[in-house]
Write a structure and sequence with these properties.
The protein has a four-stranded mixed sheet, covered by helices on one side. A three-stranded antiparallel sheet has the order 3-2-4, with helices on one face. It has seven helices and eleven strands. It has 248 residues and is an alpha+beta fold. About 10% of the residues have low confidence.
């Protein structure tokens, strides 16, 4: 091989290697960006209480999706009916789904206004339930959802007592704490939570609080936002719009 041919082969090899290395670096950069974007995700949930019609489809769908016991005192999500009288305090009842004994229908006499308020775990940024768990079974994920590891939960009920929103219960079969997870198993498959999917009025929305294209970003931009029990500084990620001042 003469000198000219040798140099030509060397230059050709360097060109091919450079292109391959560039592709590798580009792929690595894209992968790192995807990982970073996933890490930056923060799930939030929006409730337009003025859109809720009290149909309780969300409650039924949640029970079916998450194997919540059918008895009417076990809930991951529930809907409260507020009746505001002309005088005195608000009357709050839980919307039943035909599974409970017929409750006496509240009288509408003297009622100034009434409305429905869906409730669920607030996925707090500073969750009291996580702070009191003695075995670390309750924890917060990087994307802002509070979960319970039923393999390590000892059923001590400390978290149930600590939750200021009454969003937890002790599962009668597993004897472990249970609560709303935003249907985390569905979010990881790019599916909506069951309650959001079945709501006929779109009173419930979910999305990434950090994404400008998220439904939650639009929800926050288009509405005046409230959170429940803001004085506790738990920083809920369940945000409410058009909520009455009587809601507690």
């Amino acid at each position: 091989m003469d000198r000219r041919s040798f140099l030509k082969k060397i230059l050709s090899f360097l060109a091919v290697s450079g292109a391959a290395m560039g592709g590798f670096l580009k792929a690595g950069s894209a992968g790192a960006q995807a990982t970073e974007e996933h890490a930056r995700k923060l799930w939030g949930f929006g409730v337009s209480s003025d859109k809720c019609i009290g149909c309780a489809r969300c409650v039924i769908a949640c029970k079916s999706e998450n194997n919540v016991p059918k008895e009417p005192f076990f809930y991951r999500t529930w809907v409260e009916r507020y009746m505001i009288p002309m005088e005195g305090e608000a009357v709050v009842t839980n919307i039943h789904m035909g599974l409970a004994p017929e409750a006496e229908a509240p009288s509408t006499k003297g009622i100034l206004r009434s409305f429905f308020v869906p409730k669920l775990c607030n996925q707090c940024a500073h969750p009291p339930c996580v702070q009191v768990c003695p075995v670390g079974a309750t924890f917060s994920t990087d994307d802002g959802v509070v979960l319970v590891n039923d393999k390590t939960c000892i059923g001590c009920r400390y978290c149930i007592q600590a939750c200021p929103y009454g969003a937890r219960y002790l599962h009668p079969k597993t004897h472990t704490a249970d609560k709303c997870t935003f249907c985390y198993h569905r979010l990881n498959r790019d599916l909506l939570p069951a309650c959001v999917e079945v709501c006929p009025t779109q009173a419930r929305v979910i999305g990434d609080l950090h994404s400008p294209a998220s439904p939650m970003t639009r929800f926050k931009r288009m509405n005046k936002i409230f959170v429940l029990k803001s004085n506790l500084n738990t920083e809920p990620k369940v945000l409410y719009a058009h909520i009455d001042g009587e809601v507690r």
